[in-house]
Each structure stands twice: as C-alpha cells, then as structure tokens.
Amino acid sequence: MQIVVLDGYTLNPGDLSWESLFALGSVKMYTRTPPNEVVERAKDADIILTNKVVLTAEMIEQFDHLKYIGVMATGYNVVDLAAANKRGIPVTNVPAYSSESVAQLTFALLLELCHHVGEHNTAVKQGEWTGAPDFSFWKYPLVELAGKTMGIVGLGNIGRKVAQLAQAFGMHIIAHHKHPERDRMEGVRFTSLEDCFQNADVVSLHCPLNDANKGFVNAGLLRKMKATAFLVNTSRGPLINEQDLADALKNNVIAGAAVDVLSTEPPVSTNPLLSSKNCILTPHIAWATKEARERLLGVLVDNITAFQSGKPTNVVNDPVK
After folding, report:
1. At the N or C end, where does the chain have fewer CB atoms within 10 A?
2. Which pLDDT tens digits describe the chain residue by residue (321 residues)?
3. What are the residue boundaries of the D-isomer specific 2-hydroxyacid dehydrogenase catalytic domain, all occurrences included (predicted)?
4. Angstrom distance (rounded) from CA 229 to CA 150
5. Catalytic residues, which ones?
6. Cis omega before residue 312 (within 30°)?
C-alpha cells in the first residue's frame, strides 16, 4: 500500500524511529506540506497520514486510490468527515496518548503563575539578589494552591489526570462536564459552567473544540471569575476569545492566564495575547514529550495494522460501506 505522510516532522523530528511504519507499505515521508501541494503529493496514496495538514472535501474527492485517513493526533477537525463518509473512507485518530504529558504541563503553567520561577531566576541572575537588603525578596504575589478550588471544564482523560494532580496539591475540585453521571470521580463536584468559572480559583480547559463552544470563554464568562483567579488552556486555542482575554488581563478582571494553544498556530504577530500582561505563552508543547510521541507513533501503527486486517479501530467517522 502507498502510504503518504504529509507532515511528519512534529511527531518525529529525528528522535524516534519510523521503522514500524515503513514495515506496513511503501512510505512517502514529507516533513511539511503546504495546502497547494497536498493533492499532488497524495494523489496516488492508499493511506494518508496527517497531523495538522487540512484535508478538505475538494481534496478528498480527488484522491482516486484513497482507502484510509489516519490523523496523527487526538483532534480530527483537520479532515472533512462528511466527504470521507461519502467515499467510504475510515478516519482514525490517536486518543489518550498524551494525557499524562498534558496534565503535567497544565501544572507547570499553573505553578509558574503561582511562583513566577522564570522571572525570579532572571532577577537573581541580573544581580537583584546580591544587591538586596534582605535575605529574600519576591517580585510578584506568591500563591499556595492547597485549599484553593480547581475548576475543570471537560473531565475526560486529561481532565481526570489534572484532577488527580490537583487533589495531590490539596485543592478542592469542581468540574463542568458533558456526562457527569457517566464519569463520576471521587472528590469531584459537578457544577454548571457559570458556577465553575465563578467559584474556582483556577479554571483549566480540557474540552474538545466544536462549533458550539468556539469562543465560549468570552468577556461575560471572564467577568464571572474572581479577580484573583487564573485561567489555564492546554486544550484548543479557539475555545477562548483572545481579545476578550487580553482585555480582561489588561483591566485586572482576572489575575493571570497561561495558554499552550492559540486560535491560529503559528500565531499572527497581532495576536493580542502576545503582548498581554500576566499571560504565559508556550508553543503548543503539552503533547510533545518524547514519551507521548512514542505512544502516538505506536497507536498510529496499530491503527493502520488493524485497518489492513479488516478490523479498523479508533474510527471517528461513519463511512458508507
């Protein structure tokens, strides 16, 4: 089978082995593919693998040999599922491979908001400690998490890992979740979305992006938060109205924010969060530990193997047979 990888670099910039994938067919590997080259590169493919390269309906209609699309990520909004359904092409994703890593970065960002480790390290190296009149100084308010309330929006695999870490820090947990009865968790109290934002000291987003929740974190919801509260987003950038968040930070509506994802990636230079005060930004790295990427590659290969054996797994669409 002809396998075309449209954007393999972020999954494997050179520290992993593609050997298990190459054993499954004839592989054409591209580090990145611009939109205007997708059709030409994948025109003979039986299998297309993509991470962030978009496959539109118009493109899918032109792939005469295409039998399978594998998304090298959990989110699959880069593929037009309706077009794949119409062609009878299964689309698969890789769920739950990065839960531990994303939860870990969630707390790395939160702890940075609490202690500003990077800023204090810079201050020390610039001589502020050697010239200080006291044995200790701090440039920002320092926050202890024990006894605070963590509000989690989306209690799926990652949200549950975050809840476990929050409990280890002695935090109280509230959550807004689509299926509270199905996904009960000890020590977690379910609330409405508004109550979650209003009562939490930290709100952390872990819900998937869809048409209904795009931009749901807006000025009105941010105004419900405590003035001392933090917002953390390691989920999807478009969940937040970025101008509203920038305005909230500027006007001290909330105390700080930390985001690993933005509405457009890479961001445009005019993104208002790039110059916002009390806002920590990281370049979509939560998923990217080597351990998580190894798991991703393993499931990716397993998905293709299952498809080739006639028993596809992790299918996210409903292809017409």
Report:
1. C
2. 999 999 999 999 999 999 999 999 999 999 999 999 999 999 999 999 999 999 999 999 999 999 999 999 998 989 999 999 999 999 999 999 999 999 999 999 999 999 999 999 999 999 999 999 999 999 999 999 999 999 999 999 999 999 999 999 999 999 999 999 999 999 999 999 999 999 999 999 999 998 899 999 999 999 999 999 999 999 999 999 999 999 999 999 999 999 999 999 999 999 999 999 999 999 999 999 999 999 999 999 999 999 999 999 999 999 986
3. 26-317
4. 10
5. 236, 265, 284
6. no
pTM, to two decimals: 0.94
Domains of the chain and any CATH numbers: 2-97+290-308 (3.40.50.720), 99-281 (3.40.50.720)
Q: Other C-beta atoms within 10 Å of 15: how many? A: 8
Angle at 81 between CA 75 and CA 87, to 5 degrees: 140
Give dist(CA 181, CA 178) in Å, integer.
9
Q: Which two tokens stand for residue 241?
A: 């109205």
In this structure, what token pair is assigned to residue 3? 């396998």
Assigned token pair, 175: 């959550």
Helix (H) or strand (E) segment spanning residue 233? strand 230-233
End-to-end CA distance of the chain: give it in Å, rounded. Answer: 20
d(C-alpha 113, C-alpha 211), whole Å: 30
